[in-house]
Amino acid sequence: MPAAPAFSGRRAAGRPKVVADTRESRVRPAYEIRRELPADHAAVEALTRRAFWDVHVPGCSEHFLVHRMRSHADFVAELALVLEVDGRLVGSILYTRARLVDGQGREKPVLTFGRAPLGVSMKVDITYIVAVI
């Protein structure tokens, strides 16, 4: 059963009627979350460069970090993921091993994407990507 419209009643003359946007009425693009392949490396680095480019002080280095971290011992290749929407690469995330050390020097191994960029294309509706993930 479709949801009731978000707005009802009278509307001002000349203004279009507002209709609720329900999930049932939206056309969802095809998406796939999969492991990064070697063939994706250049596209992931380009996506990362576009996602992190600083327009106020032109430049970024995150794409170089992505390039270098793939050969680092702490890189977790099994968790290097890409997001494709309608066959286009629009997102990536990479994980590394890290460790937390408390005040007494005790260590706890963890996985993190804090040392790795999460890149998402600005041409894609980010609210949709968040809902997918």
Helix-strand blueprint:
Layout: E1 31-35, H1 41-52, H2 62-69, E2 81-85, E3 88-93, E4 96-101, E5 107-112, E6 118-120, H3 126-132
Antiparallel strand pairs: 1-2, 2-3, 3-6, 4-5
Explained architecture:
There is one protein chain. With 133 residues, the protein is an alpha+beta fold. 20% of the residues lie in helices and 23% in strands. The strands form two sheets. Strands 1-2-3-6 form a four-stranded antiparallel sheet, with helices on one face. It has a two-stranded antiparallel sheet with strand order 4-5. The longest helix is centred in the middle third of the chain and has 12 residues, at 41-52. The protein is globular. 14% of the residues are buried.
Concise account of the structure shown:
By secondary structure, the chain is of the alpha+beta class. The protein is built from three helices and six strands; from the N terminus they run βααβββββα.
